[in-house]
Amino acid sequence: MSMKRVVTVILMSCLLSGVFSVNVQAAEKIPAAVSQDRQAEQKSKEEKKVLASSAMKARKEPAYTKSELRLMSAIIYCEAGNEPYAGKKAVGIVVMNRKRSKDFPDTIKEVIYQKGQFQPTRNGSMKKALKAYDQGKFETKEYKACVKAAKEALKGDTKVTVKGKTRNMKSYLFFSQYVKGCRLKIGGHQFK
To answer: How far apart are CA 190 and CA 68, in angstroms?
Structure first.
């Protein structure tokens, strides 16, 4: 039974019993008012959902795990701990670019530990850096810069600023002290 019909039946029974008298035109407007109230309530709910969704996006958790941050911070420290901040971030960007590339493994751990790719995984310095990270020793200025660079790279930032110019490194897959076909030099590293 429709809302209009229910209201009409109730009003008619009240009128017939003499409880009160009602203007019939006013009675017909009641369902319309109820409908408007429902629409306003629905609109309010939808607006709240949009606001809640926006708030969730604003406090969205990082798109990386603690384990990935740990590995990325350590490899950046090992490879570029004494480099300028742009060099630290550039190392992280290369790791992330490799992760996204079809020519390299598809996890950060596999990229870092891929045979023959990162010397710190072979000479023990990566193991020492991970131990320092686990012991909470990544608190000095140099360590903190490595963690910051790792976070930015893990979030997908591919830009570095070198000598006042911003460079997009989204296609860079290699770095070393000497790289044939070098496209960018930061500190003691060349990148391509």
So the answer is: 24
Work out the widest C-alpha separation in the chain, in whole angstroms.
100
Range 64-88 burial, b when 16+ CB lie within 10 A, else e: beeebbbbbbbbbbbbbbebebbbb
Rounded to two decimals, what is the model's pTM?
0.69
Q: How far apart are CA 150 and CA 145, in angstroms?
A: 8
Q: What is the pLDDT of residues 25-39, one digit of tens each?
A: 554 555 555 556 666
φ and ψ at residue 175, rounded to 5 degrees: -155, 150
The residues of the chain scoring below 70 in pLDDT are: 1-62
Helix, strand, or coil here: 189?
A: strand
